[in-house]
């Protein structure tokens, strides 16, 4: 059991900027002792190691389970840019030493000259269109991503206001995560999210323009506070929402026409291969055969139509069943198959010839002809259709994607005679729906009572948290440091417990991760929430002399993170 354990590493910023505070956590899912810190050579340790243990207990269906995790956290800082190699840390679990992996932290210089940046650093909110390639040929695919960049902006919500006009391109939208990630561009830290991601296939030559994408952003602006009531702006009441419209820049794509394409070329571009197979080479007459052609590779596979195959005239051929697995719009390795149903009606030997597909390979800048294998079918005789279990007639064939089949000429209709109405059964069936409606009304009322009770408890979470915040404010005035940090911790844990209906015995940072993730709350908000709990826990036992300044800062952080969670849940 111990051998399966891992001392994991979690870093809140990588890459980081010179002078930034970086939080590093070492966590193991066991109760552990004798932690040996890593060598932070070249890095300044601001705080740590700060130990913490989280335990949870549950009792379900007569079975009790408990989990314990041990965490050691450090706050570090770099004074110079570069790559810093952090050696492994170690810890003892049940008498055995467990080591973490080594870790490399990349530290970049902050940009002091912000006038010559490729991305205008004076803007705190903008959208940028990024394309994978700007010079292509007709039929070639490119990836376009519209990314939203923000820094020092309290973003409330976003909405696509107008989509770009993509004349001359065939478009395939891809799924993407809109979660924000930290990126450092030209020495400036941004939170970046992908708003839209598409694969575009050029359908004509010339200078094709990708029009701007316009985004409507709600920016939260803090109102001027009432000095007499520091909680007047709590839970969003002290904010205004200002709408701001931003656009990406238009992008020009140069699309060239392919010179002297072969006569058989049908516009397929990419690194593509084709193959064929047949489920049997020897069969009886009137017995079905499956013949499949599969196209694999990267490129515009979705535009490939059934190939032109010269089947022998004595074979009955039905329209192919088409199936495809297209990944990233064809930019990743994908496949498309055409499955033909073939029925030979007379004995003999038949040859399915090679099928060919002409493509243009952009990496080689050349046309390529791909061919399938040749297949020989031997039909050994005609079967008696009444005795054969494998005999398939035209009436048995059901073509997909149609609602017209062969007409049945025989039927087994019979006369049912006169039917006498059973009045007792009639009145019983009439009464049952009425009873069901009454029961549904009663159930709905009971369900609403339970639901309203749950909602009231969740709404009270805000008020209880507010009350504890007021207690924390009083602790600042009375310089009661330890009580202040205790009240902030209680406020955060109590808020989480009430808001997400979590029993106190089950409270842990893993529980926060689980409930925030299921509620689709941004990972950055989760990290701030957990880091604030760590900061309070550390501050209670810290010998720092500037606790009064730290308390004001933590109070503001606590109010702000609860507002962000409330906003994310709306």
Describe the structure.
This protein is of the alpha+beta class and 570 residues long. The protein has four domains: 2-108, ntegrin, alpha v. Chain A, domain 4 (Immunoglobulin-like); 125-256, Sandwich (Immunoglobulin-like); 268-396, Sandwich (Immunoglobulin-like); 454-569, Up-down Bundle (Four Helix Bundle (Hemerythrin (Met), subunit A)). The protein has five helices and 30 strands. It has helices at residues 423-477, 481-499, 509-518, 523-541, 547-569, and strands at residues 8-11, 16-17, 21-28, 33-36, 44-60, 63-77, 82-86, 90-93, 96-99, 103-108, 125-131, 135-137, 141-150, 155-162, 169-173, 181-185, 188-202, 206-210, 214-222, 239-247, 251-256, 268-278, 282-283, 289-299, 315-325, 334-344, 348-352, 356-361, 366-371, 375-379. It has a six-stranded mixed sheet, with no helix packed on it. Strands 11, 13, 15, 16 and 17 form a five-stranded antiparallel sheet that branches. A four-stranded antiparallel sheet has the order 1-3-6-5, covered by helices on one side. A hairpin with a 2-residue loop joins strand 8 (90-93) and strand 9 (96-99). The longest helix has 55 residues, at 423-477. The relative contact order is 0.09. The model is unreliable at 114-121 and 398-403 (pLDDT under 50).
- The total count of strands amounts to 30
- CATH top level label of the largest domain: Mainly Beta
Output the strand order for the largest sheet. 25-26-24-22-28-29
* Large-scale geometry: extended
Which class do the helix and strand fractions yield? alpha+beta
Q: State the domain count.
A: 4
Proportion of residues in helical segments:
10-25%
> What is the name of the CATH architecture of the largest domain?
Sandwich
Ends apart, CA distance between termini? 42 Å
Largest sheet: 6 strands, mixed
**CATH domain topology of the largest domain:** Immunoglobulin-like
């Amino acid at each position: 059991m111990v051998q399966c354990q891992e001392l994991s590493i979690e870093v809140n910023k990588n890459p980081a900027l010179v002078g930034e505070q970086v939080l590093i956590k070492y966590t193991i899912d066991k109760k552990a002792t004798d932690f040996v810190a890593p060598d932070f050579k070249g890095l300044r340790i601001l705080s740590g190691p700060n130990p913490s243990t989280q335990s949870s207990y549950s009792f379900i269906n007569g079975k009790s389970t408990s989990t314990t995790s041990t965490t050691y956290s450090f706050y570090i800082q770099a004074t110079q840019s570069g790559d810093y190699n952090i050696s492994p840390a170690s810890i003892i679990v049940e008498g055995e030493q467990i080591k973490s992996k080594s870790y490399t932290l990349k530290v970049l210089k902050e940009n002091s000259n912000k006038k010559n940046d490729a991305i205008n650093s004076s803007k705190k909110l903008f959208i940028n269109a990024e394309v994978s390639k700007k010079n292509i040929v007709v039929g070639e695919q490119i990836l376009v991503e519209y990314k939203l960049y923000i820094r020092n902006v309290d973003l409330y919500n976003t909405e696509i206001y107008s989509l770009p006009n993509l004349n001359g391109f065939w478009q395939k939208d891809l799924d993407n995560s809109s979660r924000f990630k930290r990126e450092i561009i030209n020495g400036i830290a941004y939170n970046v999210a992908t708003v839209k991601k598409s694969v575009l296939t050029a359908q004509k030559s010339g200078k094709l323009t990708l029009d701007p994408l316009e985004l409507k952003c709600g920016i939260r602006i803090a109102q001027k506070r009432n000095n007499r009531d520091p909680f007047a702006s709590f839970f969003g009441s002290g904010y205004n929402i200002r709408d701001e419209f931003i656009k990406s820049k238009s992008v020009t794509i140069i699309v060239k026409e392919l010179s002297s394409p072969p006569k058989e070329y049908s516009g397929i571009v990419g690194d593509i291969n084709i193959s064929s197979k047949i489920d049997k080479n020897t069969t009886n007459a009137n017995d079905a055969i499956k013949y499949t052609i599969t196209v694999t590779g990267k490129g515009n596979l979705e535009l490939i139509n059934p190939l032109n195959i010269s089947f022998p005239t004595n074979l009955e051929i039905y329209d192919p069943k088409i199936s495809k697995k297209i990944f990233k719009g064809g930019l990743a390795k994908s496949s498309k198959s055409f499955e033909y149903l073939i029925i030979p009606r007379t004995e003999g030997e038949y040859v399915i010839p090679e099928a060919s597909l002409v493509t243009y390979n952009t990496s080689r800048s050349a046309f390529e002809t791909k061919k399938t294998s040749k297949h020989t079918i031997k039909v050994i005789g005609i079967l008696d259709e009444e005795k054969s279990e494998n005999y398939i007639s035209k009436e048995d064939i059901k073509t997909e994607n149609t609602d017209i089949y062969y007409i049945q000429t025989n039927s087994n209709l019979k006369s049912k005679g006169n039917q006498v109405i059973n009045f007792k059964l009639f009145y019983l069936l009439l009464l049952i729906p009425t009873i069901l409606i009454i029961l549904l009304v009663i159930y709905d009322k009971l369900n609403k009572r339970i639901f309203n009770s749950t909602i009231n408890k969740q709404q009270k979470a805000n008020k209880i948290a507010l009350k504890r915040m007021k207690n924390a404010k009083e602790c600042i005035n009375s310089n009661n440091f330890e009580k202040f940090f205790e009240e902030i911790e209680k406020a955060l844990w109590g808020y989480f417990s009430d808001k997400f209906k979590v029993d106190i015995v089950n409270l842990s940072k893993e529980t926060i991760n689980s409930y925030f993730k299921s509620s689709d709350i941004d990972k950055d908000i989760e990290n701030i929430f957990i880091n604030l709990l760590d900061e309070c826990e550390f501050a209670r036992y810290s010998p720092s002399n500037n606790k009064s300044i730290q308390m004001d800062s933590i109070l503001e952080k606590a109010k702000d993170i609860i507002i962000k969670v409330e906003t994310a849940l709306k």
